[in-house]
Amino acid sequence: MKQQIEPLVQKWKSLPSNDQRALGLLGLFLGVMFIVFGLFKPALSFFETSKLEAEQARELASWIQQQRPQLERVERSGGGSDQAQGTLLQRVTAAAKNHNVTIKRFEPEGDGRIRLWIDEARYQDLQPWLNNLMKQKFVIQSVSVDALAEEGMVSARLTLER
Predict the structure, then answer these.
(1) Is 94:83 a contact under the CB 8 Å cutoff?
(2) 8 Å CB contact between 160 and 116
(3) Which of 27, 50, 106, 150 is deepest in the core (most CB within 10 A)?
(4) pTM over 0.85
(5) CA 98 to CA 136: how far, in whole Å?
(6) Residues 123, 150 contacting (CB under 8 angstroms)
(7) Residues in CB range of 120: below 8 A, 6 or more apart
């Protein structure tokens, strides 16, 4: 390292004193610029951005707290108008009928669970039906979908739980 610095020191000493002073001031100026624009400004910008994000997070938390009574009212009333009334089987078959899905066989598994077999259904009908069931707060415990020979047709086995 000393071998690399030695030629630079010799060049420095060979410069006239005015050039040494100018070069020293230029080095000092560049050092100050690096500290200001390379360290201080980015840190200040990061601090300001973080401060703004924290304020937005506080406002969001406050808004959520204000909405809590409304959400509790909706939850007590049964989850809104999308929630169908009736037994588990009635709700599932009504949703299937609305989406042109024919349930070949069903098997209740206790109070809040049902197993379903669908032999032939269009995938374009099956997928919205499953989405509708999830909107009604059903939990799909297991699902197995197999493609049939006819394009777009599937068979499915699934277990739903309330």
Answers:
(1) no
(2) yes
(3) 106
(4) no
(5) 14
(6) no
(7) 102, 148, 153, 154, 155
Residue 160 CA to residue 88 CA, distance in Å, equals 9
Among candidates 150, 87, 152, which has minimal Cα distance to 126? Answer: 152
Q: For residue 109, which of 92, 127, 126 has the smallest C-alpha distance?
A: 92
What value does the mean pLDDT of the chain take?
87
Q: What is the pLDDT of residue 73?
A: 77
Query: Torsion angle of alpha carbons 56, 60, 62, 64, nearest 10°?
Result: 180
Dist. CA 130–CA 85, nearest whole Å:
18
The residue among 36 and 162 whose pLDDT is bigger is: 36
Averaged pLDDT, 78-89: 59
Residue 136, helix vs strand vs coil: coil
DSSP helix/strand/coil, 47? helix
